[in-house]
Design brief:
With 439 residues, this protein is an alpha/beta fold. The protein is 42% helix and 13% strand. The chain is built from 18 helices and eleven strands. The strands form three sheets. A five-stranded mixed sheet has the order 6-5-11-7-8, covered by helices on one side. The termini are far apart. The structure holds flavin mononucleotide and iron/sulfur cluster (SF4). The site of flavin mononucleotide (FMN) has 23 residues, from β4 and α17. Iron/sulfur cluster binds next to α15 and α17.
Length: 439
């Protein structure tokens, strides 16, 4: 059905061991001018979508390629993209209502900035991926939901859509290929809170409702925005679509692991020499990512590394874990791809307080364990910082974390419980040391 294009771009597959980046998604960063569609077109931009408009590349073929590529969502959970598209496609057929495609560019987790850079540096690759996804699903509406504080990304994407509307989706071509091109592409300025990246909250926000999560099932792919089957995909997931179609499945799967193929954008922050976004194959170790970022700043030693945005705080001896979405015993979740390196000199009380402030602020307040629990945990973190912990704080803290973990309505509450569990596991002595003596 489809012969992969011969890429003019030199896709740069390199072995993990030489520490260089493997650029598949970010290969045009710095090479294209994000403000001009011609600059993207000079690198075969929109050729694949044009093939699709002309009927040379069938939606069924795209779905098959994405399924076989093994692409897993880069928004954190690593759910199969092909499977999500298939579920939405079937649900829309059954309901006889066209589905909706949403690009999730909310990105509010601390230390994550790869989606923003993807939009700012090559918006047309994201847009072409979204148009191909919409054509595959038969979606008539595409939303690009961008964090309200990312002004540049908002401006750049609006400009890119205007240019694509004029040059690619000309009124004529829309008419003749009305089944393939969406009739509406909208950039939506999100509210800028962490929870708005969670897909059901994002859908509520688009529908003009309160920014809080929905009960699932039904999952958005079955029944989402305005009751229609809705696919929400992360920016980076969408940015993978054009390279996968250009390279073909076999070449694409040469990078990454069998269960987690492809590359990943890692946002590296903290005590490293060169904090930035790096593209590396999935299966890379945490240490290799840190080395790519230039290693540690002079004289600094690692206290722990938070990889993927949640889960275990990895000590210096655990950095050989491989970052994937499969999560075996020697692996760590790649998640959204943030790698935060904490050094021994930074006071841990400040870090605990900062996490506690974040979760207390970002809790939407819908459920009591998270609303009240995070507020109480913040009070404990403040007392820890002041060296005035109360006798009961240790037990209370453990109980609050357990309730948070078991009864929170959504994953935000469980993410908070995760990090607190790790603080409890690692810093028991610290919590006891700063307890106020009994009088
Ligand atoms: C609290 C919370 C915040 C989230 N924030 C984001 C986000 O900023 N960007 C994102 O793509 N996914 C985020 N997600 C995951 C989305 O709910 C959803 O799984 C994802 O957008 C699906 O895209 P993917 O299949 O391409 O990974 C978040 C989830 C939770 C629970
Ligand atoms: S866990 Fe927190 S963020 Fe999620 S619904 Fe409950 S209050 Fe809102």
């Amino acid at each position: 059905l489809f012969e992969p294009l011969k890429p003019s771009i030199n896709f740069n597959f390199q072995s993990i061991s030489n520490m260089n980046q493997t650029k598949i998604i970010s290969h045009l960063w710095g090479k294209v001018n994000p403000l001009f569609i011609e600059s993207y077109q000079a690198h075969q931009g929109y050729e694949i979508f044009n093939q699709c408009l002309k009927g040379q590349l069938k939606p069924a073929a795209i779905l098959k390629i994405i399924q076989e590529s093994g692409l897993r969502g880069r928004g954190g959970a690593g759910f199969s993209t092909g499977e999500k598209w298939r579920i939405a496609f079937e649900a829309s057929r059954q309901s006889k209502k066209s589905p909706i495609f949403i690009v999730n560019a909310d990105e509010s987790q601390p230390g994550t900035f790869k989606d923003r850079l993807m939009v700012e540096r090559n918006p047309h690759q994201v847009l072409e991926g979204a148009l191909l996804a919409a054509a595959t699903l038969g979606a008539k509406t595409v939303y690009i939901y961008i964090n309200g504080k990312h002004w540049e990304a908002l401006k750049i994407m609006r400009n890119a859509i205007k240019q694509a509307e004029e040059k690619i989706l000309k009124p004529d071509s829309r008419k003749s290929s009305s089944r393939k091109a969406p009739s509406q592409i909208k950039v939506v300025q999100g509210a800028g809170g962490y929870l708005y990246g969670e897909e059901s909250t994002l859908i509520n926000s688009l529908a003009g409702r309160r920014g809080e999560p929905r009960l699932r099932p039904p999952f958005p792919a079955q029944k989402g925005l305005f009751g229609r089957a809705t696919v929400v995909n992360n920016v980076e997931t969408v940015a993978n679509i054009v390279p996968i179609l250009a390279l073909g499945v076999k070449k694409y799967r040469k990078s990454g692991t069998r269960k987690s193929p492809g590359t990943k954008l890692f946002s590296v922050t903290g005590a490293v020499k060169n904090p930035d976004v790096y593209e590396l194959p999935l299966g890379v170790t945490v240490k290799e990512v840190i080395d790519t970022a230039g290693g540690l700043e002079k004289g600094k030693k690692i206290e722990w590394v938070r990889a993927g945005g949640s889960g275990r705080l990895l000590g210096p001896r655990e950095l050989d874990r491989r970052l994937t979405y499969a999560c075996g015993p020697k692996e760590a979740s790649a998640g959204l791809g943030n790698i935060f390196v904490l050094d021994k000199e930074t006071p841990i009380e400040d870090i605990i307080l900062s996490f506690a402030q974040f979760y207390a602020r970002e809790s939407c307040g819908k459920c009591t364990p998270c609303r009240e629990g995070n507020h109480q945990l913040l009070q404990i973190a403040k007392r820890l910082k002041q060296g005035k912990l109360l006798e009961k704080d240790w037990e209370n803290m453990r109980a609050l974390v357990e309730v948070l973990e078991k009864t929170s309505f959504c994953r935000l509450g469980r993410f908070s419980a995760d990090i607190w569990r790790e603080f409890i596991r690692k810093y028991r002595a610290l919590f006891f040391k700063s307890r106020k003596p009994l009088v």
